[in-house]
Design a protein that fits this description.
Blueprint lengths: L3 H19 L10 H11 L4 H14 L3 H6 L2 H7 L6 H19 L12 H9 L6 H12 L8 H10 L8 H11 L4 H17 L18 H4 L15
Bound molecules: iron/sulfur cluster.
Length: 238
């Protein structure tokens, strides 16, 4: 088993290699934090195009966040139906808005900028339906807080390379990977973006393109002959 120091070194090495492949980005995100918050809920297991359509339709039919909160559930489900699981997401969204408006008096999360990273994380994850992924995306992309979102691509690629163990959950990966990286929002943004893109373009769910991968010589999954059992990757159905 690799030591923490060597895993940290390997993580920084992988980060440097993907910086070279994809180029270092400045942090960008949606300009409206409320759009990021609600859009992230809509985006779960949904293509970007369908998320955009769901968000736009919802805002057209219910122009204020209070309108969304008070909308008849069936109508909100219909408005966001291009997103997968609209019947689950609609009550989540209404619940989040109800709590937010009740606690702060407005559908606005700009106050998070003035909280410490820990307090902002705690506040967000106390909202119903807001998990680590949504909270970290919002805090990193919109408020430049030093946190690391681990979505399905980041989870799968870091697991295959061997930066985290083969059974480590995405939730645990947040803190493990964060402990290996500098607490710098730009570094963490680039780490997230690059592993996300690598998972979309090269280290795909099925048939990863190992022959063109910059991480191949350090990759545990490749070295196992692509036979390693990982919690992030389902067994392929024949
Ligand atoms: S070598 Fe293959 S399995 Fe490993 S990270 Fe690259 S594409 Fe993914």
């Amino acid at each position: 088993m690799e030591s923490t120091a060597s895993l940290a070194e390997k993580t920084l090495d992988a980060h440097d290699r993907l910086n070279a492949v994809y180029g270092i980005q400045t942090i960008y995100g949606r300009t409206d934090p409320m759009h990021e918050l609600i859009g992230t809920i809509l985006s779960h297991r949904t293509t970007h195009a369908n998320e955009v359509t769901a968000y736009r339709t919802m805002r057209e039919r219910f122009p204020t966040w209070e309108n969304v909160r008070d909308a008849p559930l069936a109508e909100l489900i219909d408005a966001i139906k291009t997103a997968n699981y609209p019947e689950v997401k609609a009550p989540y969204i209404q619940n989040v808005l109800a709590h937010l408006i009740q606690e702060t008096g407005a559908a606005n999360v700009d106050f998070l900028a003035d909280l410490s990273t820990e307090d902002a994380m705690q506040w967000l994850t106390n909202l119903p339906g807001i998990g680590l992924k949504t909270a970290t995306l919002l805090l990193l992309f919109n408020f430049r807080k030093p946190v690391l979102p681990v979505d399905t691509h980041v989870h799968r690629v870091t697991q295959r390379v061997g930066l985290i163990g083969p059974k480590v959950s995405a939730e645990k990966a947040h803190s493990i990977l964060l402990s290996y990286l500098p607490k710098d929002a730009t570094v963490l943004f680039n780490f997230h973006k690059h592993f996300y893109w690598h998972g979309q373009r090269v280290c795909t769910w099925y048939d990863p393109k190992c022959s063109e991968c910059a991480l191949r010589d350090m990759c545990a999954y490749y070295q196992s002959g692509c036979r390693m059992s990982l919690s992030s990757t389902p067994t392929r159905k024949k």
